[in-house]
Design goal:
By secondary structure, the protein is an alpha/beta fold. The chain contains six helices and nine strands, in the order E-E-H-H-E-E-E-H-E-E-H-E-H-E-H.
Length: about 240
């Protein structure tokens, strides 16, 4: 079976959003160490390899918002599409206490091969999908309730952004009124890494944008992914309307 570095759901959709899911799968392509990074299957099912539930939410949001969804068909442990190409963590060797044997050591030639065959085609697909239309970028991620040796995180959902707060501010206000738990504002992560996916496709072109981080245990099941997507679609559209976009 041919392995492609990305998938596009609803390429024909012409709504106001383009949705991405950078960490959609835990796939190690066959051309990378014969399809393995040397980790036990249990490790490949953890958040270190995949954003659990994120792809289901992204696809359901695509249907609800009439938006195309571009997702990566390779694990973040192979190469992280949400990092700049010059980021030292682009190909992780250690993640949340787990050493990645297939990435240690990593030659410059192998690093560039993963950029050429996986990273660049994925970003090219996002660029083609967004084209020159006036769209709003939405990236969907999920986060683990607790990192190894760290306190439990209090949020069910985080809204991430950089300097462009056109979507983030009204979205946080709207979600805060609908949820009983706190809404993370650039939490549990910061909303900007130099050269990251949102930087490439939204910040530099000046497009409105937002990143959603949903706690993975809340969206592990398909029915919960759709429930969250339906809830979020309403608040995302309201935020876009409030931003006069």
């Amino acid at each position: 079976m041919t392995q492609t570095p990305f998938s596009i759901d609803g390429a024909e959709r012409g709504g106001a959003w383009v949705i991405t899911c950078d960490h959609a799968t835990n796939i190690v392509p066959n051309h990378v160490n014969g399809g393995t990074l040397g980790l036990p299957e249990a490790e490949m099912q953890r958040h270190i390899a995949i954003d659990i539930g994120a792809l289901g939410v992204a696809r359901a949001l695509g249907e609800a918002l009439n938006a195309p969804v571009v997702s990566a068909n390779f694990s973040r442990l192979v190469i992280d599409p949400n990092r700049g190409a010059d980021d030292p963590t682009l190909v992780p060797q250690l993640y949340d206490g787990t050493i990645i044997p297939g990435n240690r050591p990593l030659t410059g030639v192998e690093r560039q091969r993963r950029i050429d065959t996986l990273y660049d085609p994925y970003h090219d697909a996002i660029a083609r999908t967004s084209g020159t239309r006036d769209i709003t970028f939405l990236a969907v991620h999920s986060f683990t309730p607790q990192l190894v040796g760290r306190p439990r995180r209090p949020w069910e959902i985080g809204v991430l952004s950089a300097r462009d707060r056109r979507i983030a501010d009204p979205l946080i206000a709207s979600l805060s009124g609908a949820l009983t738990s706190p809404v993370g504002d650039n939490a549990p992560y910061a909303g900007f890494f130099p050269g990251d996916a949102m930087s490439q496709h939204a910040h530099i072109p000046g497009r409105p944008n937002v990143i959603l981080e949903i706690r993975q245990d809340l969206i592990a099941k398909a029915e919960d992914q759709r429930l969250w997507a339906n809830l979020l679609a309403h608040h995302l559209e309201a935020a876009r309307e409030q931003a006069n976009l």
